[in-house]
Records
---
Amino acid sequence: MKKSIKIFLIILMLISFATIVNAADVTMSLKPEKEKIEQGSEIKVQLIIKDFGRTGNMNALEGKIVYETEKLNYKKIEYKNNWGGQVTEDGTGMTLNKSGTIEKDEVVAEITYEVKETAELGKTKVALTNINTSTDGDEIEVNNIETEMEIVKKEEQIPPDAGEKTLTSIEITNLPTKTTYT
């Protein structure tokens, strides 16, 4: 009887270990739509799941979004590919869930930030930390991820007609008779 309990416990431990090893088969990334962003502009950053090497369903994802609040303002989040969830009002915490299964690499969400007009020029980062996911009951801890962008000076846009004078009529007065050409 004792021997069968030991064998049962060993098998249970092996199954648990196998689940943990398989759970590591997920990679996540953050991808900005562009690497150079102007002061006063908006930037979208995609949260992407890659290399989901399991059969089954990743049905939950949570984490903390970290960004430089003196440079960026959180605007909104758009869920993609049947993902949904909640994000805190300031955009620093999120809990997401998915209906359906992950078939391939996919975009989970697109987060929009506004670059402040007064943002200091140079590098800025957006990161997702304390990431936890759940797959058919297995909890998976994923490494922190981040992306970096460069804030550049906003180029002043000159309207097409600003600074240009269009000649609509001319008056010539040194002629024997006054003539206006249009």
---
Amino acid sequence: MSYVSIDTESFYCSVCARRHLLALGCVFNCTQQRYVWYVARQNCVIDKTSQKIHGIANCQFGFDISHVLQSFDLLLEQNCVTRLVAHDVCSDLSLLLHECGICDQKNLLSKLCRMEHICTKLETFKKSHRPGSSVKWPSLHDAYCTAEGLVPYYAHDPVTDAEVCAFVFEYLTNRDKKKHGS
């Protein structure tokens, strides 16, 4: 099963009043290749909250968004990827699909829609939630601590988060295999 684990970083621009992709990190399980692209955005202002979270105040440097999407598309093709894994797959996927639509990247848009989508946040919740207890969605840090046995994880960059997400997915997958005797 070939998959890519991704993490996106985004920001809200008050100038154009929408979310933008700031960075895309990914890890391909079949090759263990890791990639991160930072996106250059002209005439955009990164909101203060995103500056604090990502530590980036200026988005004038990086790659053009079309280049990022085309590079990602090519890597998906080269690695024969059929699954997309993300900690919050709905958020990451919606951002990528939105950028694909704006940049007229129909091939990538179609490819992303056809893939199986796996959300480690949801899978971790389903495996750890006890009926009757309060609902709290696990952070990527929570999921990693569950998988690794309380080893702290505090990074917040897209390629590290994608790598941690892949680790959590592998942990959940292997745990299920052991449970069912595979």
